[in-house]
Amino acid sequence: MFMKISSLVIALLIPFFFPILAKAQDYTTRKTASKKAKSYFEKARKKNREGAFSEALEQAEKAIEKEPLFVDAYMLKGGILYDIGNLAEAEKTFEEIISFAADYSKTTYYKLGLTELKQKKYTEAITHLEQFMIVQQRNTKTKANAKRHLITAKFAAEATKNPVPFTPQSLGAGINTPAQEYLPAINAEGNELIFTRRINRQEDFFVSQFQDGAWQEAVPISTLNSPLSEGAHTLSADGRMLFFTGCNYPKGQGSCDLYLSVKEEDGWGAPMNLGPGINTDSWDGQPAFSADGSQLFFSSDRPGSIGGRDLWKMQKNAAGKWTRPQNLGATINTGGHEETPFIHPDGQTLYFTSKGHPGMGGADLFISRLQEDGSWGTPQNLGYPINTEANEGTMVVGLDGQKAYFARDAANALGNSVTEDRQQVSEDLFQFDLYEAIRPHPATYVKAKVVDALTRRPIVAKVVFDALPNNEELVATSTYKDGTFLTCLPLGASYALHVEREGYLFHSENFSLDSTRAGHEPFLLTIELQRVPKTIAADTSETTPLSKPIILKNIFFDTGSATLLPSSFAELD
């Protein structure tokens, strides 16, 4: 009974979509066209296959002159106009076909809807794509594509009616040139930007410093750049580790692999392949390193991906080794590509691009937040005009959670239509203020130098940050040879810092970063470690007196009581 009712509904709808169904003989097809018209048509098809589009259009027009209702010639003409980007004329052509041969090809509605979608005529596109979905009963690849485009049209129709705040500003002449600049990465201090510049198909790293209120002229990172292409990278919070994508490198695991370079006193060290436990013979790239150093996100089409390129994550274990990569799951990943992840220093906010989630038509930017159970929340589209019908790329967000950096076609930075010809695109780097709903939790950083209290010489020491009150270890690291370290701390919590080295007395600090803390000013410290005093009995010739009292700053008591709180135990131990 259900099938009979459905068939009846479709039968009643078809005359509405095919208004001249009874006059099929009024138009001409390839089979019924005159010999001369058919000759012009075949010449048009040949020229189209050869890429001679102007000549193909000329021959198609001649075929139509001979047979004014030659539907196949019209279909060919519309397709050529669409392919060369003359969308207005393509739309007009498909509308003409429907006016005199609505029943000839169901795909005419699909092609018309797609042409309107490309022109941002979302309401009209929705109408014609829905018509195609009704008359096309079989589940074909074209119908699947139409469904996807219909979702895009409906999303874009609402998004353009409700634009989000977006005022991009160029990063300036020190960074942007007539070449293409994209894939920005910034350190926690916000004073160093590494990006990719493409000149004549060659991709290289460039770095710019922020001084005197502006980004200075970018210079190439000569120790990393090679005749191959380098890019799609991420910086550690302290700016001393650079994870990046290298393609077709010697001894690589696949076409593109993940690499690491460490910054030494004399510059960036030689790239190191992260190895077969991480890289595969598939495409692996676009890493995003968490500020606490414990997680590495990346994109890959390796086996186990849901569809296309998926987002994956690795975790460092207690021994400091990377665990086996895990797929982020179906909440994040779709049948389309998910790429260019960025994990904010708050550790809870993930930005990425996707072609599978509802968007404006290309790869859109999305945000997902970490849930209490450890899963990722449903991705939210950042909205129009941050997202456009073009493919958006990597976006990174500053420590305070307010400013974002991204790349866009310089001629269309405000979200206007973009050219289909990628050779004409000149991407530049921009910054803009994030509106409230898509901001991460703000964070700050602790930058310190550990020295010997007497000699003032730098010390390589163990550094541990615990999140209070549960004493959960947040960061465990060591200072560099110059005695320095930098760690990001999300606001809204309290942290204990422990610094120690054998032969020296213990040092502690407390950072109470509740949400009322004014601004996001960093903590800049010099930590003086005192040597353990030598006793007279051990060595009568030398003593090292204590120059200062030892203060434990993470000892907490119950209010009005001498009872120690559990958050004190880590420091006492």
Short descriptors:
alpha+beta, five-stranded antiparallel β-sheet, 9 helices, 29% strand, disordered N terminus
Could you explain the architecture of this structure?
- There is one protein chain.
- This protein is α+β, with helices and mostly antiparallel strands and 573 residues long.
- Helix content is 22%, strand content 29%.
- The protein has nine helices and 29 strands.
- It has helices at 2-17, 35-50, 53-66, 71-83, 87-101, 107-118, 122-135, 141-161, 569-572; strands spanning 169-170, 180-186, 192-199, 202-211, 214-215, 219-220, 230-235, 241-247, 256-264, 267-268, 272-273, 284-289, 295-300, 310-315, 326-327, 338-343, 349-354, 364-369, 380-381, 395-397, 403-409, 427-433, 443-452, 462-468, 472-478, 484-490, 493-500, 507-513, 523-529.
- The strands form seven sheets. Strands 2, 3, 4, 5 and 6 form a five-stranded antiparallel sheet that branches.
- α2 runs parallel beside α4 (71-83).
- It is elongated and about 110 Å long.
- The chain starts with a helix and ends with a helix.
- The relative contact order is 0.07.
- The model is unreliable at 1-24 and 414-424 (pLDDT under 50).
In short:
With 573 residues, the chain is α+β, with helices and mostly antiparallel strands. It is built from nine helices and 29 strands. The N terminus is likely disordered.
